[in-house]
Amino acid sequence: MLETGTKMVNVPYKGGGAALTDLRASTTQVMFPQLPAVIALASSGDVKPLAVTSRYWLPQLPDVPTLSETVLPGFHVTSWNVLLAPKGLPDDIRKTLSDVLVEAVKDPQLTEKMRKLGIEPVGMPSAEADAFFEQELQRWKRVIDTSGIKLEH
Prior knowledge:
The mean pLDDT is 88. The chain starts with 15 loop residues before the first helix and ends in a 6-residue tail after the last helix. Helix content is 44%, strand content 0%. It has 153 residues and is an all-alpha fold. The protein is globular, with a radius of gyration of 18 Å. It has helices at 16-24, 35-44, 67-70, 91-104, 108-116, 126-147.
């Protein structure tokens, strides 16, 4: 909305299932769901994927372009997961955990299963993950500050 000036009303849901049900019933008009949740609905024709927010076309939705190439050049947003530990974790333990995780995502069976779900396994060493995490914090801080989002208690 910030990039295009589009006005939308956020409809909060307790979960993606109810939101997808409303989208399917045309109670809501647009949604940005996680890929695994939408693959079956898209395949059945119950919903119409317009674009993906990733950098690249997805094999699970081979006819769906990226948002970047349709209306927002350079725009991409993907979800990501990170393993967190308490501050002050000893460096040797942190390195061991990081090394094991980076190695685990190289496993072909795991990689295949993840990709079928629309997850691109990356596996970053902890220093690289720290830099990525900081970059994402700054990116979303800008969105929050620019849009005037306030924390509601």
